[in-house]
């Protein structure tokens, strides 16, 4: 899989790599660093003629699908220590989808808040970057949903401020990845805070998830608000540094995003995803990245409500 990156990659990579390589006791199925064994490879996929037949002619001729991704969101997507190779569940899933369709998924690192705009401008063919499928996003892009995840928050070990519920974030400094799910949920919590006569969340939107984690570690934030799947990974990698003190706030589908007029590619990817589910590869990938609890049945389109 060919990987490209933007100039932003260097800063975010260092932070992500630190988070990924922090020590923890290894257990079954994990790497020596305590997380999933990113080097574990799965069997190559055969091209599925039915799924590949749905590809638009221009994509088939090019042999490449341009993938927008915010590569600082472990275990979903992050750079290896060479600062070039993209690892994570989404990287593995993209590789497998590409093999089923007979094309290459070319991951291109970009800020999360620019992904939907990049899709609508057709700078990218799809976004594979752990994006929650929400109705307000469906006005701009279509989703093929492939996981389900909740939202919660991360604090320093020992929970020094005693934060255990959403309402505890009222008036607190909360770091989020700009335009990501945590950013949107922080606004919802602020509305509830103000309705209850409390201060809104003191939200700090940052360029990427690694920067949000750094803000917490440096004391510039009291908590990080994000998808539970990435925060649980941070705790697993750094059990003596972080904890998640609250249960997830509901569950939402996570989807692969497409321009609204790219229905051919959307349907081809949905068909390829079903192939991976039927042959067991999807379950193998979930197990590899400790995401079995986030499994989603089928490949529904725009299921977010």
Structure, described:
By secondary structure, the protein is an alpha/beta fold. The protein folds into two domains: 49-149 and 252-294, Periplasmic binding protein-like II (D-Maltodextrin-Binding Protein, domain 2, 3-Layer(aba) Sandwich), CATH 3.40.190; 151-243, 3-Layer(aba) Sandwich (D-Maltodextrin-Binding Protein, domain 2). The protein contains eleven helices and 13 strands. It has helices at 9-21, 49-52, 57-62, 89-101, 115-120, 135-138, 181-195, 209-217, 228-237, 263-278, 281-288; strands at residues 3-4, 64-69, 78-79, 86-87, 104-109, 126-132, 141-149, 151-156, 173-177, 202-206, 223-227, 242-243, 252-259. The protein has a six-stranded mixed β-sheet. It has a five-stranded mixed β-sheet with strand order 10-9-11-8-12. Strand 9 (173-177), helix 7 and strand 10 form a beta-alpha-beta unit. Helix 1 (9-21) packs across helix 8, helix 4 (89-101) packs across helix 10 and helix 4 packs antiparallel against helix 11. The chain is globular, with a radius of gyration of 19 Å. The two termini are 34 Å apart. Residues 1-34 have low confidence and may be disordered. Residues 64-293 form the Solute-binding protein family 3/N-terminal domain. InterPro entries: Solute-binding_3/MltF_N (IPR001638). This is Polar amino acid transport system substrate-binding protein. Residues 1-24 form the signal peptide. Keywords: Signal.
Element layout with pairings:
Layout: E1 3-4, H1 9-21, H2 49-52, H3 57-62, E2 64-69, E3 78-79, E4 86-87, H4 89-101, E5 104-109, H5 115-120, E6 126-132, H6 135-138, E7 141-149, E8 151-156, E9 173-177, H7 181-195, E10 202-206, H8 209-217, E11 223-227, H9 228-237, E12 242-243, E13 252-259, H10 263-278, H11 281-288
Parallel strand pairs: 1-5, 2-5, 2-6, 9-10, 9-11
Antiparallel strand pairs: 3-4, 6-13, 7-13, 8-11, 8-12
Helix pairs in contact: 1-8, 4-10, 4-11
């Amino acid at each position: 899989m060919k990987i490209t990156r933007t100039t932003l990659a260097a800063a975010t990579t260092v932070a992500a790599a630190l988070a990924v390589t922090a020590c923890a006791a290894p257990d079954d199925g994990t790497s020596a660093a305590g997380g999933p064994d990113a080097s574990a490879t799965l069997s190559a996929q055969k091209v599925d003629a039915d799924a590949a037949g749905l590809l638009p002619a221009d994509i088939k001729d090019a042999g490449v699908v341009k993938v927008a991704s915010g590569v600082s969101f472990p275990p979903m997507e992050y750079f290896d220590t060479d600062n070039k190779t993209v690892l994570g569940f989404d990287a593995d899933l993209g590789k497998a989808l590409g093999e089923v369709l007979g094309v290459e998924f070319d991951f291109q690192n970009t800020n999360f808040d620019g992904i939907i705009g990049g899709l609508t401008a057709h700078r990218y063919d799809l976004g594979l970057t752990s994006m929650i499928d929400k109705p307000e996003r469906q006005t701009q892009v279509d989703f093929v949903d492939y996981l389900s995840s909740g939202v919660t928050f991360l604090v320093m070990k020992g929970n020094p401020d005693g934060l255990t519920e959403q309402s505890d974030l009222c008036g607190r400094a909360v770091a989020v990845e700009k335009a990501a799910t945590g950013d949107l949920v922080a606004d919802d919590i602020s509305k509830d805070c103000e309705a209850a006569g409390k201060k809104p969340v003191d939200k700090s939107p940052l360029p990427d998830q690694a920067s949000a984690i750094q803000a917490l570690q440096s004391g510039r934030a009291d908590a990080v608000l994000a998808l539970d799947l990435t925060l649980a990974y941070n705790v697993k990698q750094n059990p003596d540094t972080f904890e998640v003190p609250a249960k997830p706030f509901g569950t939402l589908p996570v989807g692969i995003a497409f321009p609204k007029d790219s229905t051919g590619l959307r349907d081809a990817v949905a068909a390829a995803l079903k192939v991976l589910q039927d042959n067991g590869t999807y379950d193998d990938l979930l197990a590899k990245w400790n995401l079995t609890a986030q499994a989603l049945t089928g490949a529904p389109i725009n299921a977010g409500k």
